[in-house]
Amino acid sequence: MSTDASNTPFPLFITPMDVRWQDMDAYNHVNNANYLVYLQEARLKWLQTLPGKWYSEEGAPVMAHSEINYRLPIEWPADIQIELFVNRLGTSSMTVGHRIVDSDDATKIHADGSVTMVWINTKTGRPVALPQAIRDAVAEAQDA
Amino acid sequence: MSTDASNTPFPLFITPMDVRWQDMDAYNHVNNANYLVYLQEARLKWLQTLPGKWYSEEGAPVMAHSEINYRLPIEWPADIQIELFVNRLGTSSMTVGHRIVDSDDATKIHADGSVTMVWINTKTGRPVALPQAIRDAVAEAQDA
Amino acid sequence: MSTDASNTPFPLFITPMDVRWQDMDAYNHVNNANYLVYLQEARLKWLQTLPGKWYSEEGAPVMAHSEINYRLPIEWPADIQIELFVNRLGTSSMTVGHRIVDSDDATKIHADGSVTMVWINTKTGRPVALPQAIRDAVAEAQDA
Amino acid sequence: MSTDASNTPFPLFITPMDVRWQDMDAYNHVNNANYLVYLQEARLKWLQTLPGKWYSEEGAPVMAHSEINYRLPIEWPADIQIELFVNRLGTSSMTVGHRIVDSDDATKIHADGSVTMVWINTKTGRPVALPQAIRDAVAEAQDA
User: Fold this and answer.
1) pLDDT class of D5 with cuts at 50, 70, 90
2) Sequence ranges of the domains in chain A
3) B120-141 pLDDT per residue, tens
4) Per-residue CA distances from B39 to A143, B14, B49, B85, D79 (Å)
5) Would you say A98 and A42 are in contact if contact means Cβ atoms under 8 Å apart?
């Protein structure tokens, strides 16, 4: 991974997401808070694909920042997928860009934005270096 | 309300929020998505205090943007309150700043950020002018 | 469908269910309330397969009763599926039996129980006759 | 507590419940699954009032059964409260009866039913004797 890698977003992972009827609110659209649930589940699906360990008591990810642009409402039923990007890789943090798009037409964007996670020591609460498993997976995605 | 009102944040509303055990995730902290639920409930509590009509088929608020800085985890049980601010008032939009703070010590900030809502005609999907009830309430808050 | 059909449970529908990390609570198991969400989503997936109309203002299903035996905790990640049965068909009501089982081993039962729905006129609140689409689908399932 | 205590329901605890807009589903009523959330939060509020320890690795409550009769929909906003009863006390289990009623008129019953919890050793999964804190609190409630 080149040294300027952290500044150019590149694709990391794509996964379909099952939209539940329960995800809708009284407006008959998927509630705004559930977008964060979708992003979380997509990140976890990505993390589960890693061969190495991305989580331990000495280094666990916590949310530092989230940002969402709501562009098109998500109705039910819907076929959507979540696209994850690497926006920035820091010493202890990772900013994952995201888009929620129509499965049949990825130009139909329901939402985009980013989520920043910081890896911390769960006992001290202090930031720690990103796990090697994360760095390896990101480097592999960048080279793909 | 003066013409530059929209650029200087000022307090709008404060409400306590009941933290449910259910709001926690497997990390034993309130899940990041539920912060948006808390903000939504706080906004609705504010909107319910308005004497005038803030919602109709001709003008209903939809989410355009949300942004959260996660600063301190929220555990259970917890005594928290939500502070809302007016960050910006546009022709059809309103950006509400927010802080989630400890009820006993408002300097203990669990999260801050903002949410932008746009009022639209629910039939056409087009932005409409902010309801007068919103403008009046914001002007009153600013003068307070 | 024979006249005593309503008293002998028979299989209606099976669907896999995507278990979200979000579905877990602070005990690291899927929260008890989310079992009802899974059942709801399974029922809706079944209802969506019906060729006829099962829902209108003159006849919409509302929950009358739910009953769950929690037998084995559901962890994450998990491969589960929901099995639906027809336990009883009344004039305006339908009791759907259910089981949540392991996808690889349906004898590993996480939960079972039943849910009773009553079709009502949404304006009057009064029970109405089950839609023909429901009766047809149930008859077809029974004959299968 | 008399020996036949376990068979006669008696009041245990009453608590108001904050109904969130988020609790509603696309039908504009509180979703059926959230009734279990309300009951869970009410039980926890009761458990938090106990002077003694009701939870440890050697004895933690897990859900064994839930049963709900849905009688009147819950809309938003709503003022409701949860009433808990002791329906039955076993060696390792406790069956809590419940009612969700209107705060201003407890004869307006939105739902009733019961939840059975079993205390287990979290390592072995085996049932253990109910904690003394539970038995004491129940005895006190019965004598009140």
Assistant:
1) very low
2) 10-143
3) 999 999 999 999 999 999 999 9
4) 40, 11, 16, 12, 20
5) yes
Helix (H, G, I), strand (E, B) or coil at C111: strand
Tokens of B48: 């319910």
Are A82 and A114 in contact by the 8 Å Cβ rule? The answer is no
The first and second tokens of residue B133, run together, are: 């009830």
Q: Helix (H, G, I), strand (E, B), or coil: what is residue B28?
A: coil
- At residue D35, what are phi and psi to the nearest 5 degrees? -60, -40
**CB-based contact C36 D40, cutoff 8 Å:** no
Round to whole Å and give the CA distance between A137 and A141.
6
CATH number of B5-143: 3.10.129.10
Question: Rounded CA gap, B9 and B109, in Å?
Answer: 17
Determine which helix (DSSP H) or strand (DSSP E) holds B33, and give its type and residue range: helix B32-49
Task: State in words which class domain D10-143 has.
Answer: alpha beta
Kindly report the backbone phi and psi dihedral angles of residue C99, in degrees, each rounded to the nearest multiple of 5, phi listed first. -140, 140
| Radius of gyration (C-alpha) of chain D in whole angstroms | 16
How many residue pairs from chains C and D have C-beta atoms closer than 8 A? Answer: 52
Rounded to whole angstroms, how far apart are CA atoms B59 and B133? 12
* DSSP per-residue codes, D103-121: TTEEEEEEEEEEEEEEEE-
ipTM attached to this prediction? 0.94
CA distance B62 to chain C (A): 24
Q: What is the pTM of this model?
A: 0.95
Distance from CA of B32 to the nearest CA of C (A): 10
> What residues of C are in contact with residue B21 (Cβ under 8 Å)?
25-26
CA max distance for chain B:
48
- Cα–Cα distance between A70 and B36 in angstroms, integer? 13
Q: Which neighbouring-strand residues pair with B30?
A: B24
